[in-house]
Amino acid sequence: MEAYLFVHFKEKRTPDGEQVYFGLSRDGFQWEAVNGGQPVLWAFYGDRGVRDHTIVRNHADGKYHIFATDLSLAYGMRGKYRNSWEQVSRNGSKCLAHWESDDLVHWTEQELVKLGDENFGCLWAPDVVYDRKNGEYVLHWSSSHADNGYGPKGIFCSRTRDFRQFTPPELFYREEEYGVIDSAIYEENGLYYMFLKHEGNPARIIELCADKVAGPYTRIERFDEKMQVLEEGKYEAPTAVRIEDGRWCLFLDYYGVPGAGQGYVPFVAPDLAGGEFERSDRLFSFPYGFKHGTILKISEEEYCRVRDFAWPQN
Predict the structure, then answer these.
(1) CA-to-CA separations, 230 to 78, 84, 97, 273, in angstroms, rounded
(2) Are 154 and 171 within 8 A, CB to CB?
(3) CB-based contact 130:59 (threshold 8 Å)
(4) What is the mean pLDDT, run by run of 10 residues, along the chain of 314 residues?
(5) For residues 283 and 49, what is the distance between their CA atoms, to the nearest angstrom?
(6) Peptide bond preceding 202: is omega within 30 degrees of 0, i.e. cis?
(7) How far apart are CA 71 and CA 51, in angstroms?
(8) 143, 123 in Cβ contact below 8 A?
(9) Are 81 and 71 in contact (CB under 8 A)?
């Protein structure tokens, strides 16, 4: 029997919100907080806060890895970034925060993995997909870049087999007129599906498909049609998981109101290919608003281990 681990942060104006939180579910629909809804890991380096988490299990050695944006708005927005998202985008961290574990409960100390250079804006919203053809993991993230005058943001990537050695970053996907951020890529029946936050025409989540991880990707128009019911410019951070009965659950992070009203909104579809996602709020339950994260399938044993562990209290 499968279970599910959701790694995320909270939308709070205090530093404890921008840390590592875990949520658990036995079915992908009903979610519970871990550690009483308190952080399970803290960021002590870089910006001393993390957002936009992803988690992956390395097939080769079974180790788990968490990557996240090295960014704290609670600490830095008023001072370092002068209350400007443009300052965040251009001058934010060139590193991703990283933790590693053998068992999901004992984690290494946070480290900063520098993948960007002076030509990159902030590296944010990392995610990972496994490239079966090449036996590599593709770590991808959003950035602005000097090569287009720090214009529309694009998706960049680096490849790795062990999460220690990374290839030089390269452009993965970008559009000429509008920025794209928050990439999430999944494989189904030998094809790869990428969800993105599109920053204009429409300012909504889009879905694309390719026959290999590197692309080229083409838009799934039916998904665009299904998303027309959503207000533009209010949803981001798509993340998805295939549950045991074969259906896909897609979560879109709603940020259209301030504070606690934000969090993931669920959609369900029989597959990724058709783009037929239906909003399904009544099927799901969250203890609070999970913010920008990803989901890892885990075993029942792992579920119990994470749920029952005596997490440190900070």
Answers:
(1) 31, 27, 32, 20
(2) yes
(3) yes
(4) 96 92 97 97 97 97 98 89 89 97 98 97 98 96 97 98 98 97 98 97 96 98 96 97 97 90 95 98 95 98 98 81
(5) 32
(6) yes
(7) 6
(8) yes
(9) no
